[in-house]
């Protein structure tokens, strides 16, 4: 441990806040792991289970989604903030509160359904003042919360705030914050097209199937971090993953995998997850000590956990010899695995998971830089993507099983910028088919979508050249890009 601290202290690549965060992580990991069964430990040792490097002792939830609308109505006694009366006070109040919202990254992963939060104050200032204030807020988020897992939501209704966010983010050309546009029947086509024009330049916003989300979580949900879907006023205690590729390699046959190995691995995943939740809630007593809970901005009963999968593509290939997206039998096997996994997850005991009706959330999104030769979630391997329509059809079959997170990322030819009507058909068609979350980009863009977060190609180059950078997530992005992201197939409209 002392050697690790010395390395951090003497690092020339880290700024002060990075050194502080990394030393905190060393201290956290110096404690012995939570008590789990030997079988579950073995799954972790074999890297069949993954704890997402959350640390041995969780002392804050992984993701927290405060109810910022409620905050605007009541203020905060702890922060000595009165309910805002105009847009100036509202923006100032938000910038203060953000500094006190925890997450696994040390920064808030959710900065609000910002149009619901700020639209009531738009009539208190001029249009020019509104533009300047929202621009100031976005710049403040980028500078003070330097982590690309920070997410802002807008939509599905059309608002002045939502349009300003899209406009200003297009002008600023920064990776932080991510922007989600929820899309439903009430979302006008011209707003979606406005979002598409922006996304083909800076990958913001991405597009969310509001109807599917509300059927799973209700109207009050947010999309955060790596497209994770969680209840506003709640969040996720933890995220654990199952490596389907590694589990397939341990199985004697597909029958052994689906009927024997998968149930045992999910049971172990549930044990690991519950141990982490119980420690956070019962031992650390986060929800008894946090002012966010005391003031009703978060509620334990709205939290859940996330049990995820990755390596689906490789798993299917091991058992069929075929690739998802290119073979109907392979597609059928992929869906069966997702269906069985979701059923197993929901049958496991889940403690303190009121946010998903007492069940663990089902997840297929997260990817790590350490996932060598293992495709994130239920996506098709980079460079192996089928036609856009075959890809959408397969994704729509799979996304429905993952109520707390699943997405697709499509890279389009530069000419897509000249065919926004065609892109509108792609986006709306994907949503209508059942895709949960869709991210689009053009191949000429400076920005690269990793999973749920963005990096700039120029920042990755700076990191690779040894420069110290403000954004923490550039490091993860630079390492993950070595896993083949740049081989994503470019699509035509």
Given helix and strand content, the structural type is alpha/beta
Strand order of the largest sheet: 3-4-5-6-13-12-16
* Integer average pLDDT: 94
CATH C-level category of the largest domain = Alpha Beta
Summed up, the helix count is 20
CATH architecture of the largest domain: Alpha-Beta Barrel
How many separate domains make up the residues? 2
Describe this entry's structure for a reader.
With 493 residues, the chain is an alpha/beta fold. The chain folds into 2 domains: 1-30, no CATH class; 48-493, Anaerobic Ribonucleotide-triphosphate Reductase Large Chain (Alpha-Beta Barrel). It is 45% helix and 14% strand. The protein has helices at residues 2-9, 16-29, 38-45, 68-74, 87-98, 114-118, 127-144, 160-172, 189-202, 210-217, 244-250, 254-283, 286-289, 291-294, 312-320, 328-347, 388-399, 420-433, 457-464, 473-480, and strands at 49-50, 63-64, 110-113, 151-154, 178-183, 206-209, 221-224, 228-231, 235-243, 303-310, 361-363, 408-412, 437-442, 447-449, 454-456, 490-491. The strands form 4 sheets. The protein has a 7-stranded mixed beta sheet. The longest helix is centred in the middle third of the chain and has 30 residues, at 254-283. The mean pLDDT is 94.
List the helices and strands and how they pair.
Elements: H1 2-9, H2 16-29, H3 38-45, E1 49-50, E2 63-64, H4 68-74, H5 87-98, E3 110-113, H6 114-118, H7 127-144, E4 151-154, H8 160-172, E5 178-183, H9 189-202, E6 206-209, H10 210-217, E7 221-224, E8 228-231, E9 235-243, H11 244-250, H12 254-283, H13 286-289, H14 291-294, E10 303-310, H15 312-320, H16 328-347, E11 361-363, H17 388-399, E12 408-412, H18 420-433, E13 437-442, E14 447-449, E15 454-456, H19 457-464, H20 473-480, E16 490-491
Parallel strand pairs: 3-4, 4-5, 5-6, 9-10, 10-11, 12-13, 12-16
Antiparallel strand pairs: 1-9, 2-9, 6-13, 7-8, 14-15
Helix pairs in contact: 1-2, 5-7, 7-8, 8-9, 9-18, 11-15, 12-16, 15-16, 19-20
């Amino acid at each position: 441990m002392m050697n690790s601290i010395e390395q951090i202290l003497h690092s020339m690549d880290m700024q002060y806040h990075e050194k502080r965060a990394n030393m905190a992580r060393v201290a956290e990991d110096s404690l012995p792991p939570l008590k789990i069964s030997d079988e579950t430990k073995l799954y972790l040792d074999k890297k069949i289970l993954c704890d997402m490097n959350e640390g041995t002792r969780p002392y804050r939830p992984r993701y927290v989604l405060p109810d910022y609308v409620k905050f605007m109505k009541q203020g905060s006694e702890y922060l000595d903030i009165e309910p805002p009366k105009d847009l100036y006070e509202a923006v100032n109040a938000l910038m203060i509160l953000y500094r006190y919202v925890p997450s696994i990254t040390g920064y808030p992963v959710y900065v609000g359904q910002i149009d619901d939060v700020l639209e009531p104050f738009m009539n208190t200032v001029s249009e020019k003042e509104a533009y300047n204030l929202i621009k100031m807020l976005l710049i403040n988020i980028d500078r003070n919360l330097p982590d690309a897992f920070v997410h802002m939501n807008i939509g599905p209704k059309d608002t002045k705030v939502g349009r300003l966010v899209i406009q200003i983010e297009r002008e600023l050309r920064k990776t932080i914050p991510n922007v989600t546009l929820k899309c439903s029947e009430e979302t006008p086509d011209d707003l979606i097209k406005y979002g598409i024009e922006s996304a083909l330049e800076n990958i913001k916003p991405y597009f969310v199937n509001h109807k599917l989300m509300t059927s799973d979580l209700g109207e009050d949900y947010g999309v955060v971090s790596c497209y994770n879907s969680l209840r506003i006023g709640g969040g996720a205690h933890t995220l654990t993953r199952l490596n389907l590729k590694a589990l397939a390699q341990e199985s004697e046959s597909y029958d052994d995998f689906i009927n024997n190995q998968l149930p045992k691995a999910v049971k172990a995943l549930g044990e690991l997850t519950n141990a982490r939740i119980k420690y956070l809630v019962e031992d650390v007593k986060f929800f008894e000590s946090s002012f966010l809970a005391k003031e009703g901005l978060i509620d334990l009963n709205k939290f859940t956990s996330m049990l995820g999968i990755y390596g689906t593509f490789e798993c299917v290939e091991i058992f069929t010899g075929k690739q998802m997206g290119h073979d109907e039998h392979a597609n059928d096997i992929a869906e069966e695995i997702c269906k069985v996994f979701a059923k197993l997850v929901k049958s496991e005991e889940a403690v303190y998971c009121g946010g998903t009706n007492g069940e663990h959330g089902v997840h297929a999104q997260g990817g790590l830089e350490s996932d060598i030769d293992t495709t994130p979630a239920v996506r098709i391997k980079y460079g192996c993507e089928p036609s856009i329509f075959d890809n959408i059809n397969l994704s729509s079959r799979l996304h429905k099983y993952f109520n707390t997170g699943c997405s697709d990322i499509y890279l389009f030819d530069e000419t897509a910028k000249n065919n926004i009507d065609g892109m509108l058909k792609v986006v709306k068609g994907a949503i209508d088919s059942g895709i949960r979350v869709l991210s689009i980009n053009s191949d000429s863009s400076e920005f690269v979508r990793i999973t749920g977060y963005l990096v700039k190609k120029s920042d990755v180059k700076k990191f690779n050249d040894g420069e110290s950078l403000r954004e923490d997530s550039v490091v993860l992005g630079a390492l993950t890009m070595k896993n083949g992201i740049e081989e994503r197939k470019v699509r035509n409209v």
